[in-house]
Every structure is written in structure tokens, then in C-alpha cells.
Amino acid sequence: MLYGDEKPRLFGYWTSDSYERTGCYNLLCSGFVQVSTAVVMGGTIQPLSADGGSQHVINLVIWKDSRSENWWLRFQNTNLGYWSPLMFDRLSESATITQWGGEVINKKTNGRHTTTEMGSGYFPRAGFGKASFFKDVSIVNENNNLVSPNHIKAFASKPKCYDIVINSYSVDWGSNFFYGGPGRNTYCPI
């Protein structure tokens, strides 16, 4: 609804006070400083994976520059921009929680759940080639090295509409999970 289409987009939402009074999507307000036009925050993502066909992986990294103390977003191998540490009251030194996943806006038009798909629109159990996934999920530690997180927990607010399945760590996939769903369906009518 934000952009008037159903295209997948690189989006970010920031809040400086844990969703109490502040927050904004993409470049709709000051906060994220875009420095590259390779991909614009809020812009469409290409190429897309095909149902049962070619699967494409996007590499994203958020890291803190020790000199400037800015929090940078890297897409593929390009630094897209940063958030100033002055924006955050609880993120001056490090993050205490990191979240990965999908998001859908549900306005409950006519009292019914949206038919907006999350990810590819398949539930996670459809697996590779169908369901959307995150692989090599890592965090940047205090030594600026990528490491797998210790305790990944799944959360799905409407598992009959959208769900998540955390998989075992593997050498090829690292920490990983499948996620998504169709939105309104027989088991998720409202």
C-alpha cells in the first residue's frame, strides 16, 4: 500500500526508543542517510527467485563503524547508507537483539485478514525452491567478525497465515530458516 504496487522491496524501519514514540520506514523521514544509488531503501529488488526455478540470494549486513560509530547497511557488496548513533538512545555501543524475517501490513478490510503474501506466498514447510528463506544468518561481534547467533527463536504472530521454521545449522547454509505464507486462507480467515 505504501508504494501502490505488490513488488518486493528492500525496506527498513528504524525506531530510536523501542517503538514508543519514534519510527519511520525507509526514506520517508530523516534517519537513514542514503549514500549509494545501487539500491534505494524502499526500492524494488531484482532479480526475483522463480517458483521451482532459479533461486536468488541477497546479502545484507548491518555493522557499526568503529571510527564514525555510524550503523551501516551493506547490500550485496555496496554500502547503501547509514544510521547515525545519535538517533538511538539504546544502541550506542551494541545491539542487544537482532531480528530477521518478513512483515505484512494487515488493515483487516471488511474485518478479514489480508491476502497479501509474505515472502513467496508459500508456507515454510514447502522448502527450497518454493518458500522464502534466510541463510548464513550472522551477527557482527565486538571484534567485527561475522559469527552465527547462539540462540535463535522463532516467532509468528499468525502462524496459520504466515509461519517460520528454523533449520539445523549446516556448513553450506549456516544458521537458516524458511518463512512466509499466503495470508488469508482456509485456516486463516480473519
UniProtKB/TrEMBL annotation:
Pfam families: Neprosin (PF03080). Coiled coil: none annotated. Residues 1-189 form the Neprosin PEP catalytic domain. PROSITE patterns: NEPROSIN_PEP_CD. This is Neprosin PEP catalytic domain-containing protein. It comes from Acacia crassicarpa.
